[in-house]
Amino acid sequence: MTLKHLRALAEDDLGFYFRQEGTDIGNMTIREQNHAKLGFAKALGDPARIEKAIFNLVGDDWDEEMDGKYSDAKGLEKAVEMLTEYYIRYGVAEGPISAKQAIRRIEKQGAEQAKQFMGRTGGD
């Protein structure tokens, strides 16, 4: 059984464990949430939120000596790679392509939430 199957069967019961920082599954869930926040920030068109979301995605994993000078594109690429590794390891995705598709869906869900948020607050 894969993590993907467990999530489908028992999301509510596993939710607490999924959010435990320091565990692989907890870290994966936090990364997913940060990708959703990035989609939300992009939909709002808020540069400060976008920068914060990217920083949260990369966080302490950015090493300028190894990774080069930070940029949004480099940061996003590394963030996607990190979540892709988790997805493949835990059976959420079969490979890099399906993992990246799943990450795009997460960001799209964040964008949809932003659109709902803007609708409630009088935004476009």
UniProtKB/TrEMBL annotation:
Domain of life: Bacteria
Name of the protein described by the UniProt record: Uncharacterized protein
